[in-house]
Amino acid sequence: MSGESGVHADGSLWPKQTKRMSFGLLLPMGEGTAHGDTVRFADLVAMTRAAEESGFDTAWFIDHFAFRFGEDERGVWECWTMMAAVAAKTERINIGSLVACTGFRNAGVIAKMAEAIDEISGGRFILGLGAGWHEPEYEMFGFPFDHRVTRFEEAVKVIHPLLRTGTANVAGTYSSAVNAVNRPKGPRPQGAPILVGSSGERMLRIIARYADAWNTVWHANADLVVEQMAAVDAACLEVGRDPKTLHRTAGGNIALEDPTGVRPTPISGSDEEIAATLRTFRDAGITHFVAGLDPCTPDTIRRFRSVIDLVGA
User: Is residue 239 helix, strand or coil?
Assistant: First the structure.
C-alpha cells in the first residue's frame, strides 16, 4: 500500500503517497484482452501480486458485463466479486474500481459493498464511480439508459453520506434512502475514498462536491489532460472548493515488447522514452497514473518496474 489510510492533514481521504505520482495497473478482466487468452481468477491474483511487488500502488478493475461492438462481442468478469476475492489474496496494494457503474446497482448496496471490501482489504479500497457509457450492456441486462447524469448524482447523494457518516436520508426520483444505515463500519471511520471519472460540465460539478479524486482516461498526451484540468479547477471554484484538495488521476495505454494491439493509441518507445512521456503527466499535476499495459502478464508487469523507477528518478 502506498501510504497510510484515513484522513490526512489536508482533509483528503486519498491514500498518502511518498512520490509525486504513484502508479496503478489496469487489470485485464475478461475475453480478448491484452492478457491474451481469457483471464482467470488465478491470473488476476498473479498479476495483482506482481504489481504489488513491482512498485504499483493500486490494482484497478473495470466494471462491465460485456462489450458489444457490431459483430465483436466479449465477456467480462463481474467487478465486485473479483475485487473482493483479490483483496483477500493481497496485503499491501490498493484495490479500486475504474469505475463502478451506478446504473447497474442500487446506490445503498454499492455503499455496503464498498464498506465490505474495505474491511476485507484492511482499508485498501478506492471506490471509483461513473455513470456508465456502453449502451449495449444496459440493453442486455434491462437497465435504463436515460437520465444517466441525474441518476448518477442521486446515487452519489446516497453513497457519500453512507460512507462518510454511516447514515443517509435522500428522497430522489431514481435513488432514495430512508434512515438508512451503513454498519458495521470497516477500518476507516469515514470510509473509502471516492474517485469519479468524467469530463462533462455537470459531472465535474458533482465531482467537485463529492469526490476525493478525479480521473480521466485514456491519453497518450498530457496536453489534453491540462486542458481538462482547467475545467476541473473551475468546477471546484464554482462549488466553493479549493481545487488543490481534489486529487488528479489519469490513465493511458502503454505498448511494451510484442504488444497484442488490443489497447488503442498507446504510449510506446524505450523504457526511457515511456518514462519521459509519463513525467509530463506528473509535471502537469497528475498524482496517480493508471497504466494499461499491452501485453499485460505477471512478467510484463514486473518488467514495467524499470519505467516506474525511471519516472521517480
Answer: coil
Return averaged pLDDT per consecutive 10 residues of the chain, 313 residues in all: 48 86 97 94 98 97 97 96 98 97 98 98 98 97 97 98 98 97 97 94 96 96 94 97 96 97 96 98 97 98 98 87
Give the integer Cα–Cα distance in Å for 84 and 82: 5
pLDDT for 11: 60
| H-only helix segments in 122-239 | 135-141, 148-164, 201-210, 222-238
pLDDT at position 237, please? 97
Task: Locate all alpha helices (DSSP H) within the chain, ordered by sequence.
Answer: 41-53, 79-88, 107-121, 135-141, 148-164, 201-210, 222-238, 271-283, 298-303, 305-312
Q: How far apart are CA 61 and CA 25, in angstroms?
A: 9
**Going from the N-terminus, what domains does the chain have, and what CATH number goes with each?**
22-312 (3.20.20.30)
Calpha distance 297→81 (Å, rounded): 21
Calculate the CA dihedral of residues 118, 119, 120, 121 and round it to 10 degrees: 50
Q: Is 94 helix (H, G, I), strand (E, B) or coil?
A: strand
pLDDT at 199: 87
Up-side HSE of residue 191: CA atoms within 13 Å toward CB? 26
